[in-house]
Amino acid sequence: MPRTPIKPLVDLGFTALEAEVYTWLLDEAPATGYRVAQALRKPAPNIYKAVESLEGKGAVIVDEGARRLCRAVPPEEVLGHLERRFRERKELAARALSELSPPKGDDRVYRLRSAEAVLERARTMLARAEEIVLVDAFPRVLEALRAELEKTGARGVDLAILTYAPAEVKHARVITAREGRETLGRWPGQWLSLTVDGREHLIAFLTPDIRSVRQAIWTSSLYLAWVYHGGLSAELILAAVERAVDEDGSPEDIRRTLTDNLSLRAKHARGYRDLRRRIDESNGRGAVPDP
């Protein structure tokens, strides 16, 4: 039997030996532990321990006869068991972690070193968005985050996206950059700029296949996030006006486009309110009330 399933099984929590025993039994069962040891050329005590562990994982069953024949449980049953166990452990971990209080006021800038970490951080940011999300994304990154973006917009969060090729995203105002094609041609990769509620922001430049990171940073610094929100909102507003001009809009059309998109500046977004509150409290003036 091909040994290609071994690594995925190890990724699911099997040891390398357990994965090897399980895949062999799928093809050769029923067999005694001693027969498995001979076939795999492994010490018999190690095989017996692996079989016992696999029993505990629900991946192997052993008859109660004198020979103790081992049989592999069908893969769909094993994977279903692993999935249920993962969900249970995830829920337990979530409850335990929810009792911890994350540090507040972290102004540091953190480097993200994997594409998986970048995309997962973006999804987490979108999930906790409350008021406004601004996005500047190349096509492949946009597609990777489409489902989460649409869920965010569906919750009533003001969602604006600057794209570099025509795209549709439900519940979002999508603005295509005037020089989108040229911009894509100049950059040998895929980028993402994301700011949420003016409270945190993520900047990432990924390889063309979005599997590796060239450079990526994230911060919840209120000052940096708010400044970046201002810059990104200006880019979106300018792109919208440029599109109106290119479409030969009348002065009134252009003025309306500008007015309609000025709300992206979100002068009273959560990040600004939190930043002002922090500054005023440090100056002894007390908290600034929400507008």
Q: Regarding CATH, which class of the largest domain?
A: Alpha Beta
Distance between the termini: 67 Å
Shape: elongated
Number of domains: 2
Q: β content, as a range?
A: 15-25%
CATH architecture of the largest domain: 2-Layer Sandwich
Instruction: Look at the structure and give the mean pLDDT.
Output: 89
- Class from helix and strand fractions: alpha+beta
Order of helices and strands: HHHHEEHEHEHHEEHEEEHHH
C-alpha Rg (nearest Å): 27 Å
Strand order of the largest sheet: 3-9-8-7-4-5-6
Query: Number of DSSP strands?
Result: 9
Number of helices: 12
Biggest sheet descriptor:
7 strands, mixed
Describe this structure in words.
It is a single chain. With 291 residues, the protein is of the alpha+beta class. The protein contains 12 helices and 9 strands. A 7-stranded mixed β-sheet has the order 3-9-8-7-4-5-6, with helices on both faces. A hairpin with a 3-residue loop joins strand 7 and strand 8. Helix 3 (33-40) crosses helix 4. The relative contact order is 0.09. Mean pLDDT is 89; it is low at 287-291.
Task: Give a short summary of the structure.
The chain is α+β, with helices and mostly antiparallel strands.
